[in-house]
Structures are given as structure tokens and as C-alpha cells.
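tool_call: predict_structure(chain=1)
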Amino acid sequence: MREVERSGASVEEALEAALAELGVSEQEARVEILQEPGKGFLGLGGQKAVVRVRLAEPQVSPEELEEQADIAEEFLEDLLELMGLDAELDSGEEDGVMYVDIFAGDDPDVMGLLIGRHGQTLDALQDVVRGAVQRRTGERCRVMVDVEDYRKRRRSQIAGRARDVARRVVRTGKPETLEAMNAFERKVVHDSVAEIRGVESESEGEDPDRRVVIRKA
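tool_result:
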């Protein structure tokens, strides 16, 4: 069984690199987090995230996904209460992804606070939820945290753009570089490009300016 180990500033970045090398989506792989990222003293000497990815992972059962969603909801309820934020939680599966959704009602300030600039706060929420679920279950967290459907809308927009660019690259033969994206968004691009025959994608650069390049295979 083929496997690779990769490191990155975050688990998502390391996972993206490993999946890209294997040429598979996360649903086709078994992911083991060997090391969580950590900051060193005064920001120096921090450790990178390290993941091991193997091919041919059995599908996660619906019961396991629901268990992870329940744990994530419970954790987020406590966290939001500590933050003094009034929001409602719900979970459900969409396009093969289990989401735990946070709905802030009519208060746009709460929504903006939880999403952050370019989704940075939402990414941070994802990180802490992932850690909480993994500690409880001993398995990689498969649940995505979303706020007012921000991730779903963003995922749809990015996937559509990636497919359009990939088809244009097929026609012109000229590689194209997309705008800087976070690890979650880059993975959406890689998965979308993989649907188009004759092209491939690769991430280049360093965060926060890491970008996906689409070129002919």
C-alpha cells in the first residue's frame, strides 16, 4: 500500500501536499496526523504539522460521522457560550461532507466575528474543533465547521472557477495561476481540476500567498 509523509505549517497544508503527490482525494485515502503544528517560545522554533497518507481508505460510516458531528456541536456550544455569542447550531451532510453549521441570526457582527477576514477566524475554529474531535475519538476529524453557509458558498464558487480555468487551459495549453487561497480552498481546486481530463494542479509559494497553478498534464 503506497503512503507518503508530508509536513506543513498546518495539518491542511501538509495533507494537501500529500494528497497532491498521491493524486487522490481525501475520500480515497487514510490520513494519520503524526504531529500537530505548534509555536515555539516567542514564536521561534515552532514545529510543523506532519501527516502520513495511505491509499485505499475504507469509507467512514455514517454513524462515525454523526458521532463526530455531535462532539463538534457540543464543543462549539460550550465555546460560543464562553465567548458570550448568541448562535444556533445544526449539522448535516452535503456533497459528501458533514458540516456543523453555526447560524448567527440577524446579527451581522456575530457572523463577521466568527468568519473573520477571508475566513481566517473560521479556519481557527476548524482547527480547535478538529483537535477536540480527534482527542475524543482517536480518529481524524471529518467534520467541517461552517458559519451561515460561508464555506459552502465559497466552495461552490471556487469549484466552478477552477473547472472553468481548467477547461481554458485544455484549450489554450497555457498554464494559469489562481489567486492566493487557504488550504481548504486549494484542496477544493485540486479536487475540481482532477475532474477535468488533460490538466493537473499544483500548489506553489508560501502561506498566506500560496496559490494553485493549473497546467496541461
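agent: DSSP finds six helices and nine strands in the chain. Proceeding to next step.
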